[in-house]
Amino acid sequence: MKRLTLTALLAASLLAGCSSNDQVVQDDPPSKLYQDAEAQLNQGAWITAIEKLEALDSRYPFGAYSDQVQLDLIYAYYKNDDLALAEATIDRFMRMHPAHSESDWVVYMRGLVHMGQDRSLIHDILRMERDDRDPQPARKAFADFRRLLERYPNSEYAADAKARMTALKNRLANYELAAADYYIRREAWVAAVNRCQALQRDFPDTEAARASLPLMLKAYEKLGLEEPAERTRKLIAKNPA
């Protein structure tokens, strides 16, 4: 419930604009505000750019720069690691402009935002790999990039999206492998078999799928299931580590 409340507050804050920014951003004409915001974007001054763009979005929600302001806010939020605000802005833009000429870029950015949400700052700093982390943001990112390829196969972002899907597929497969290993250590043999089978079904062309075969064999042996165990031995022989 608290998470839903926080999301609602973020969305409400976004739609209403940032009142504190209205106090610090000068009341210039929209053309001047937008020009200044673009200059800040080009310099990588994300916070200042966001302040000016939010002021524009709040003061002139239906002005001449409205669409571009929202697109720029998506980018600035993403670069500033304000991922919740970036996602809220993307969802708002997609609702209001389902057939916009920049829709492929918006879907692509949604994938990048979800990939960003799959990161952990502590893990990045310590260069730690944690395959047991909740992969829900990675699943969302994978779905976003797949949607981009299905709807906009000729998009200039399609090649990068396809490459990112490969990385995400390995991330998701490694999570399933970590889960199967956990069940093996807990001696939950049926659950381990189910995880291994799902991994081999959904991500058959990954290293994790091959690494899951010995786990599945052990589970079958512990369950006394000789026939599937023998099939698994043959698969291991055909797919040596």
UniProtKB/TrEMBL annotation:
<dbReference type="InterPro" id="IPR017689">
    <property type="entry name" value="BamD"/>
</dbReference>
<feature type="signal peptide">
    <location>
        <begin position="1"/>
        <end position="24"/>
    </location>
</feature>
<dbReference type="GO" id="GO:0051205">
    <property type="term" value="P:protein insertion into membrane"/>
</dbReference>
<comment type="function">
    <text>Part of the outer membrane protein assembly complex, which is involved in assembly and insertion of beta-barrel proteins into the outer membrane.</text>
</comment>
<keyword id="KW-0472">Membrane</keyword>
<dbReference type="InterPro" id="IPR039565">
    <property type="entry name" value="BamD-like"/>
</dbReference>
<protein>
    <recommendedName>
        <fullName>Outer membrane protein assembly factor BamD</fullName>
    </recommendedName>
</protein>
<dbReference type="GO" id="GO:0043165">
    <property type="term" value="P:Gram-negative-bacterium-type cell outer membrane assembly"/>
</dbReference>
<keyword id="KW-0998">Cell outer membrane</keyword>
<keyword id="KW-0564">Palmitate</keyword>
<keyword id="KW-0732">Signal</keyword>
<feature type="domain" description="Outer membrane lipoprotein BamD-like">
    <location>
        <begin position="27"/>
        <end position="235"/>
    </location>
</feature>
<dbReference type="Pfam" id="PF13525">
    <property type="entry name" value="YfiO"/>
</dbReference>
<comment type="subunit">
    <text>Part of the Bam complex.</text>
</comment>
<comment type="similarity">
    <text>Belongs to the BamD family.</text>
</comment>
<dbReference type="GO" id="GO:1990063">
    <property type="term" value="C:Bam protein complex"/>
</dbReference>
<keyword id="KW-0449">Lipoprotein</keyword>
<dbReference type="InterPro" id="IPR011990">
    <property type="entry name" value="TPR-like_helical_dom_sf"/>
</dbReference>
